[in-house]
Amino acid sequence: MLGDRAVNRLGYGAMQLAGKGVFGPPRDRAEAVAVLREAVESGVNHIDTSDFYGPHVTNEIIREALHPYRDDLVIVTKVGARRGADASWFPAFTKEELKQAVHDNLRNLGLDVIDVVNLRAMFSVHGPAEGSIEEPLTVLADLKHEGLIRHIGLSNVTTRQVEEGRRITEIVCVQNMYNLANRSDDAMIDRLAAEGTAYVPFFPLGGFSPLQSSTLSDVAARLGATPMQVALAWLLKRAPNILLIPGTSSRLHLRENLAAAEVELPAGAMAELDGMVPA
Within the chain, where are the H helices? Predict the structure, then answer.
């Protein structure tokens, strides 16, 4: 579940539809449109995006490819950052910036209301860092009250920020970096699972050491799957509240990603993968 909407656990992340560095137009816009259409035709009903991808590029492509949207399609976006002319990333936490970002997402996606808006914390470029999210989250809560947002989530946040957010509004999902090689959110995932809150990991293959990559490749070879498919399958088995949003700009790669849902990880393979990172 994502808020009050049922979604398939394998979704799609639109970040790679923009140009290099998530900036500017894609090399092949027609292929980007085709990827989105095939994703939805294949059963994907959860798309993750942001108007600062491009900026504006991915949302415009989503609208071109899929509007008018299917009733079961849930579109999730992010606010809290802006792009510089050199493709750099900056915090965008003021009331004016957040309101403008929500309205930009609505316009470029062709929506009257956004299913889920994630507030991305930008206190550090290296990952979650402490800092109060009360002011920016209150802005989003007000926009939710106005009817422009259905649900609110958090991205790139600490456990303390999740707790702070819940004192302000309902939090339906948390989106952080997490994968086989980066498990700092283990306790958070388990707590969110017990509470029925979705956890959406990004960078499912980020930060692997050569040894970890070798272990993953060995398991994948034995199962007749790709390392990416095994990494995604492990995430699906890790906790029932995990929703995946692997991204790609290729239909072939999309099919490989979606096939991860069919990968069966036997107990021995799970134990080997679980043991890749010391406790």
Answer: 29-41, 57-66, 95-109, 134-146, 159-166, 186-195, 210-223, 227-238, 251-258, 267-274
Task: Return all residues near 235 (Cβ < 8 A) that are at least 6 apart.
Answer: 178, 179, 201, 204, 242, 244
Token readout for 196 is 């029925």
User: What one-letter code names the amino acid at 190?
Assistant: D
User: What's the pTM?
Assistant: 0.96
Give the catalytic positions in this structure: 53
Q: What is the pLDDT of residues 131-166, one digit of tens each?
A: 999 999 999 999 999 999 999 999 999 999 999 999
CA end-to-end distance (rounded Å), the chain: 30
Burial class (CB in 10 A: 0-12, 13-18, 19+), 44: buried
| Residues with Cβ within 8 Å of residue 64, at least 6 apart in sequence | 33
CA atoms within 13 A on the CB side of 208: 19
Q: Is 100 left (phi over 0), alpha (psi -120 to 50) or beta?
A: alpha
